[in-house]
Amino acid sequence: MNQTSKPLLKLFPLIAGLLGTVVLLIGLVVGILYFDHVGLQPTQVQLSEALPATAEPKSNALMDPVGMWAAPDWGTVDTEPNADDIKYGRELIANTSEYLGPNGKVRKISNGLNCQNCHLQAGTVPLGNNYSAAKSTYPKVRGRSGKSEDIQLRINGCFQRSLNGEVLANDSKEMIAMVAYMDWLGKDVPKGEKPKGAGIYEVPLLQRAADPIKGKTIYERQCVTCHMIDGQGVMKPDSSGYIYPPLWGEYSYNQGAGLFRMSRFAGYVKANMPFGVTYENPILSDEEAWDVAAYVNSLDRPKRDFPNDWPDISKKPLDHPFGPYADGFSEEQHKFGPFQAIKAAAKK
Known about the structure:
14 helices; two-stranded antiparallel ribbon; 4 strands; 40% helix
């Protein structure tokens, strides 16, 4: 080996060392950049130990939707032998005033409201005062009349009270159609049973009296868009009925109507109002529902005497707004509450 090659051989270890150092430095830099970008990923075991269990979102629904009554599929109605009656019955419920209102094309016997103003979407909404239990529970004895009522008598009661009008003959085409529609809605409900979601939601009683003054504020904040500041609602362009009904005044329900009871009105608005609300997403608090009911039902509306109501006064609901009563509580307290003492006295 010549003298020139010997120094070069001595440089090889140094060069190799330098290359190794460079590779290590490059690897270190790349590793730092990688972990800075993606972070250190803990294992699933570490994650389960470090993070608390995620809670299920809290539901505000007034009732569990599981098992809730639903109306039969309207698309199947043509398979029914009385399909024409059922269809006409639904039309009468949805557009009562067009047929039987002040300018009704069949008869002129009611105030311009439609049945579905109180029985939402033609009586098909859960906790919207639906007709699911009409077929299964009528005829039945009712405390208000003190006798057994069939569904025809119940319908005519609504015409006289909520629609502040006159009755239909039991054998009229309109009565037959309305009963047919209600029967069809409840066709799958066993006799004697009320399905889940029937009727109106029962709002828990307040510890105080419902307050019309507070209710006025709530009304002005939540209700005027549809029912207007004067409470007279919005009429259809052709004046055949209301898009949004009047809540007081000459063309609203009279003092014998079910919604004139504070608990009924409060339960109705709690589950269904303002427009767009359902029992699954209520907006009003319980107190707001009671107070707006107090406001609306403190305002003038048609008065009509029903002298045969409540032959047994002990059967009157605790919030029935007119005496006489079987207890010593005032008419004012029976209307606005507080109701706990009345309820307790009734149990004795």
